[in-house]
Amino acid sequence: TAVVDRCATCGSQLDAPLRCSRCKTSIYCNRDCQKKHWSEHKRLCRPFTALDQERSKPRQFKERTCRKAYASFPHVKWVPCATRQHPDVPAPNLLIMLHGTGDTEAGFAKLAASMAVPGMETLSLRAPLAVPYYDGFSWHRVFQDDGNLIEPNPDEKRRVDSLQQTRKALHALFDELHVDGWHLRGIFLLGFGTGAIAAIDAGLTYQDTLGGVVAMSGGSFLEEYNALDLDTLVTRLEWRQKELPLLVTHNPSEHGLPVEMAVSQATLLKAWASKVTYETYSKPGLLKTQEEVKTLFAFLSPLMITSLHEMALNGEVEEVARLEQLNLK
How far is CA 47 from CA 24, 42, 227, 244, 270, in A? Predict the structure, then answer.
């Protein structure tokens, strides 16, 4: 059966389709249909490159994307998507896990396995900074060399400088993943504690918009910036991705950030970023209640790339058209 080109907006059969000049995949009747579809299409549209043809080869894709180490993160753990029908083809979405202070990539890999998010592979990272007198790691400096806490204040640079180094490492990782074939709109970050701050910081300052960020019980930025007004805060932190979807949550903890401070920081973040959801929970811990899990899945689900979206992004236009004709969505 011959493949029929159909408009991505209205579904009309096309003899001479208008193709998106950026991604070369979505097709339309005319400019009006293209404009109507842009609000949905812009989340997935990215420039078509020479690599795209290679990315559509399933087994090679799997070998290239499930590497054991990256230049900026030599210690990682992959958690395969548990519900994938074809194990040789990666799920179209990637969840990058950033553990809390004193933990390792192994602990968060277990959490990812228990979550088993459909349609999503998981990459658990080890933070770059060893914690003195502990076996774990952190995303920015928390302790002095003698094991005492570094007290945050406007003149304190050790925490700030170390977080900026982590930002550079995460940005380099995003670049590596993109070259390996992951679509940036399908990359999500989930961080806890210091990992939450690192996730927000890296996501808001990256050159392109990622799929979304989940930040749990770490606040929205370092306490060193608490006294700044919004304009100064945005400038100092170099925030640029105003449209990045963010889920910021907070659970009570004896040694963690006070709820009042978490709310104050989230309020400032919401005043600048356009897609922020903030939730406060009464139970300590991480994803301990059904409410927390439901909120997480409700945030991720509408943002994730579907299989058809991924096929279109990979240039498999004819196969997408065939499946759409059969109403297999």
Answer: 8, 11, 40, 19, 30
Identify any residues that bridge with 95 across adjacent strands, giving them in sequence order: 122, 188
| Parts of the chain with a pLDDT under 50 | 1-2, 50-59, 311, 313-317, 319-320, 322-324, 326-329
Residue labelled with tokens 């978490």: 262
Rounded to two decimals, what is the model's pTM? 0.76
The CA-to-CA distance between both ends of the chain, in Å, stands at 19
Reduce the DSSP state of residue 183 to 3 states and report it: coil
Rounded Cα distance between 132 and 147, Å, is 6
CA 117, CA 304: separation in Å to the nearest integer? 11
User: And the tokens for 319?
Assistant: 């196969």
User: Which uninterrupted H or E stretch holds 259?
Assistant: helix 259-272
CB 133 within 8 A of CB 162: no
Question: In this predicted model, what pLDDT tens digit does every residue of 194-227 receive, in sequence order?
Answer: 999 999 999 999 999 999 999 999 999 999 999 9
**What's the Cα-to-Cα distance from 73 to each of 106, 170, 249, rounded to whole Å?**
14, 8, 26
Taking a C-beta distance cutoff of 8 angstroms, is the pair 99, 195 a contact?
yes
> Which helix (H) or strand (E) covers residue 297, if one does?
helix 290-300
Radius of gyration of the chain (CA): 21
